[in-house]
Amino acid sequence: MDRLSLTNKSATTRALEGLAKSVGNYLPAAAQGLCPVDTAAAYIGACLAQSCGKCVPCRIGLRKLGELYEKILSGKGEESDLELIESTASVIADSADCAIGYVAGEMALTSVRAFREDYESHIAKNWCSAREEHPVPCSALCPAQVDIPGYIALVQNGRYADAIRLIRKDNPFPSVCGLICEHPCEEGCKRNLVDDAVNVRGIKRFAAENAGYVPAPECAESTGKKVAVIGAGPAGLTAAYFLSLMGHKVTVYEKRNHPGGMLRYGIPDYRLPEKILTDEINVILETGIDLKLGVDIGKDISIKEIAEGADATFITIGAHSDKKLRIEGEDLDGVIPAVTLLRGIGDGEKPDFTGKKVCVVGGGNVAMDCARSSVRLGAEKVSIVYRRRQADMTALAEEVEGAIAEGCEPVTMMAPVRIEGENGSAKYLVCQPQIISTIGRDGRPGVRAADVPEVKLDADIVIVAIGQAIESAPFGEFGLPLKWDTIAASDECDFENAPGIFCGGDCATGPATVIKAIAAGKVAARNIDKFLGFDHEIKLDVELPAPSLLDRPACGRVTMKERDADERKNDFELMEKCMTEEEVKQECSRCLGCDHFGYGKFRGGRCFKW
Predict the structure, then answer these.
(1) Is residue 220 part of a domain?
(2) How many structural domains is the chain composed of?
(3) Hey, which end of the chain has fewer CB within 10 Å, N or C?
(4) What's the pLDDT band for 368 if we cut at 50, 70, 90?
(5) CA distances (Å), 76 to each of 45, 69, 557, in order?
(6) Is the pLDDT of residue 606 over 80?
(7) What are phi and psi for residue 341, nearest 5 degrees?
(8) Which helix (H) or strand (E) holds 161?
């Protein structure tokens, strides 16, 4: 027999792997303004290039699919071609020997069904309706549509106060978002094509920390109209801010003793210090908003009374109730809902967990906040119990990593089945081990009970962080439509049969991110203004710096540093460090300037006013 040798990658293989990586980086970064028909055709072509040619569905079917796509893209397609694409793709998906073929078939089916209007536009007009607008990628992915390239350019030029003013044109919480925004804008950053996305949140935070006091702009002349806002969370305060700038008289009703909603009662100080939040809210209130604290709607005043006393009403009560595990023992002492724990911490009432063994049930950001807070409250051991894998946790990766660094232990693939106690207090969390299962409609793998015995975890404290509920029943009784436990408002934050009543934020969408709540407040403000018979514009006459013509070579991303885990886990002081001036200037220089070099010059590009 012939001698054996170690297998090394050839230069061709290495080049192909690099090309595949580049394509992988390109697809997420190019989602805005893409033609779905062209994208599907390119994917079919890539799959055909990968095919070994052994099976007929790949060798012939994918080639025929490619020909049909080419026919449609060249303007020669017919309606019957869409049916032919569906039938051909179905056969390939059902009969191909390997994933190259059947995944390509499934993708073609998904594309032609999801984007049928675009396919029909190509056939009828030889034109892609999806390409009518070319938004700036990062701004388009920001729910509040903040002018991200604009404020990055201002920061790069040392104009920090102007950067904050530009952010506030769309988002009155620059300091808050600089600390805790989940930065969806970075997902479509074109810099991903070169190396890695620009650290947008870090740049915003630097601007907020170095701008000093930046007052709110002057309000427009009074309109004489009154607007009531129920809830002083991010959505409510955002709407109140913009409505006040438009000249309307805004009154905000808040149930708690302090404004901020989940910003105050859901995010611990080590991520969002109380002083930074309070200072930001004070700037919002400078616009003349009347804030009424400690008002329990339905007890102190009815929804009807509020609505009758205002020309328009915006409901944004958030999601402040807890969801139950619905297992035996959940009523024992020591079983605490996540919202109750975080609300107490927000009010300065920190429980003493010294020497306690804590189990946090859940895998989202709230679960991580509870786990990391428990460490700071003196817990002897903190376990994060999750029924799926660690990779399936919905929390940000950096939050999970931070919790582990501070001593929290992920206990994954465990589903709680009951809580056992002694003398009326929790003692053990009993879990059934799970095994990973089939992929669900949401694209995430499900789990099922493994054929192994139950496991007992020591648990003096069980914190339930599996989601939040909405106290929507009183609003249903008022006559507003409900869907599950949310208030069923439209995407324009209004109702078909309730003129003058608007609703947005977590109470309408279910628990979501801070920036989505801010976006809801912005949308509601614009549409309330329209309802009241006005057409005010929110704009900012800040002259942006001339775009840099310097080369932008590949350069690593500046990541945010944190205080040492052994130090930060002992207090609730801010854990993340700000960029240095040197770091922020370098990070700003990585921005490719899509607002000038391409997208911002097209229809749907930069928005100077709204």
Answers:
(1) no
(2) 4
(3) N
(4) very high
(5) 19, 10, 46
(6) no
(7) -60, -50
(8) helix 160-168
Is residue 484 domain-shared with residue 570, that is, in the same domain? no
Most confidently predicted of 80-89, 468-477, 541-550, 578-587: 578-587
36 beta partners: none
Which residue type does 324 have?
Answer: K
Residues 464 and 327 in one domain: yes
Contact residues for 333 (Cβ-Cβ < 8 A; gap 6+): 421, 424, 425, 426
Q: Quick one: 239 and 314 in the same domain? A: yes
Place of tokens 């079983």: 335
89: which DSSP letter?
A: H
Strand partners, 457: 429
Find the mean pLDDT for residues 585-591.
96
**DSSP H stretches of helix in 532-580:** 565-568
- Taking 3-state DSSP, the helix, strand and coil percentages for the chain, each rounded to the nearest 5, stand at 40, 15, 40
Structure token pair of residue 380: 């002897």
User: How distant is the alpha carbon of residue 149 from its chain centre?
Assistant: 19
The two beta strands, 414-422 and 425-439, are antiparallel
pLDDT in tens, 230-244: 999 999 999 999 999
Please provide the average confidence, as pLDDT, over all residues in the chain. 91
The range of the structural domain enclosing residue 252 comes to 226-320+470-531
Query: CA-CA distance, 489 to 236, in Å (whole number)?
Result: 15
CA distance 568 to 369: 14
Instruction: Report pLDDT digits (tens) over 308-363.
Output: 999 999 999 999 888 999 999 999 999 999 999 999 999 889 999 999 999 999 99
- Show the tokens assigned to 206: 């630097």
Enter the tokens of residue 126. Answer: 């030889």
The dihedral sign for the CA sequence 499, 140, 178, 168: negative
Strand residue runs (E) in 316-402: 321-322, 335-337, 357-361, 381-386
**Residue found by looking up tokens 């729910």 in the block:** 143
Out of 25-29, 78-82, 361-365, least confident range: 25-29
Q: 């809210």: which residue's tokens?
A: 281
Q: Would you give the DSSP letter of residue 187?
A: G
Confidence band (pLDDT; 50, 70, 90) for 601? low
Give the domain CATH number at 179.
Answer: 1.10.1060
